């Protein structure tokens, strides 16, 4: 299974392709999940392109499940799944509602399809770890696979939200991945992790981002705080350009 919110791009298709190498049949879901958006966020504006999405999936996904909100959340729906562990901090500091919405809908989707495997993108790295935790803790009979981030020629991670960017904003957006690579080079060169995070925040402001939510270097398996690179680490960042919020992350 490959769960998505639609407005499909090549990154989503790469997850379906990955799933196809491991499974006989792929179920893709398309559902803009209201419970993972706060009232001030872009739920209404989120791009919805179902016809084009179905064309992209033609011949790739055996089943496309595109439920309505009423189907997923019928009258009286009252259950929320809260995952601890890797959901602490980072995205949760800025979108406190987010992972409960994700965990609840992913649990429902996995129980509806009961797939042997489900593929999620490393693009949403914290989400990938939260989904792995959810599935382990509830003993759901699905193996979670992480797939690499697909990027544009200048390194910008493909995202449905890139459609919001003006030409000028798109140029700024392309700096995010470059700055993360520069920070990785600095810490690999024995730089102090906190100093490097601060330098990343400064560089994003200077590049023209209108707000920087975080640049963080964490343990890659747990997202715990670290002070040295003795174990696999990950750099994660979130920043806004105008109203558009972008996230990215890379292995260190
Ligand atoms: P979304 O529709 O944005 O919720 O994403 C659905 C799935 O596609 C998630 O598992 C994302 O991590 C994944 N995804 C989004 N963007 C990319 C990308 N550029 N490369 C690979 N996977 C992606």
What does this structure look like?
The protein is of the alpha/beta class and 252 residues long. It is 37% helix and 18% strand. It is built from 9 helices and 8 strands. A 3-stranded parallel β-sheet has the order 1-2-3, with helices on both faces. Helix 2 links the parallel strand 2 and strand 3. The longest helix is centred in the middle third of the chain and has 16 residues. 36% of the residues are buried. It binds adenosine monophosphate. The site of adenosine monophosphate (AMP) has 17 residues, from helix 1 and strand 4. Adenosine monophosphate binds next to helix 1 and strand 4.
For the report, how would you describe the main beta sheet? Answer: 3 strands, parallel
User: How many DSSP H or I helices?
Assistant: 9
Q: In percent, how much strand structure appears in the residues?
A: 15-25%
Average pLDDT for all residues? 97
Bound molecules: adenosine monophosphate
Radius of gyration: 18 Å
Helix content: 25-40%
Uncertain regions spanning at least 5 consecutive residues: none
Question: Element order, helices and strands?
Answer: EHEHEHHHEHEHHHEEE
Query: So what's the overall shape?
Result: globular
Gap between N and C termini, in Å? 29 Å
Q: Strand order, biggest sheet?
A: 1-2-3
- Structural class comes to alpha/beta
Query: Could you tell me the number of beta strands?
Result: 8
């Amino acid at each position: 299974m490959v769960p998505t919110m639609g407005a499909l791009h090549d990154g989503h298709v790469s997850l379906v392709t990955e799933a196809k190498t491991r499974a006989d049949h792929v179920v893709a879901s398309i559902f803009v999940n209201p419970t993972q958006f706060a009232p001030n966020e872009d739920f209404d504006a989120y791009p919805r392109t179902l016809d084009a999405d179905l064309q992209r999936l033609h011949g790739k996904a055996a089943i496309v499940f595109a439920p309505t909100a009423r189907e997923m959340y019928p009258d009286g729906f009252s259950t929320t799944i809260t995952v601890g562990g890797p959901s602490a901090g980072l995205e949760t500091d800025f979108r406190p509602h987010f992972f409960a919405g994700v965990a609840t809908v992913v649990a429902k989707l996995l129980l509806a399809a009961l797939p042997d495997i489900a593929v999620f993108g490393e693009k949403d790295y914290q989400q990938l770890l939260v989904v792995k935790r959810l599935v382990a803790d509830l003993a759901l009979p699905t193996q979670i696979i992480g797939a690499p981030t697909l990027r544009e020629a200048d390194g910008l991670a493909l995202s449905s939200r890139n459609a919001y960017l003006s030409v000028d904003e798109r140029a700024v957006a392309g700096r995010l991945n470059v700055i993360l690579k520069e920070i990785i080079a600095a810490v690999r060169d024995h730089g102090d992790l906190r100093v490097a995070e601060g330098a990343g925040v400064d560089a994003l402001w200077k590049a023209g981002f209108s707000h920087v939510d975080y640049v963080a270097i964490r343990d890659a398996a747990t997202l715990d705080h670290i002070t040295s690179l003795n174990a696999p680490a990950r750099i994660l960042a979130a920043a806004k350009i105008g109203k558009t919020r972008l996230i990215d992350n890379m292995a260190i």
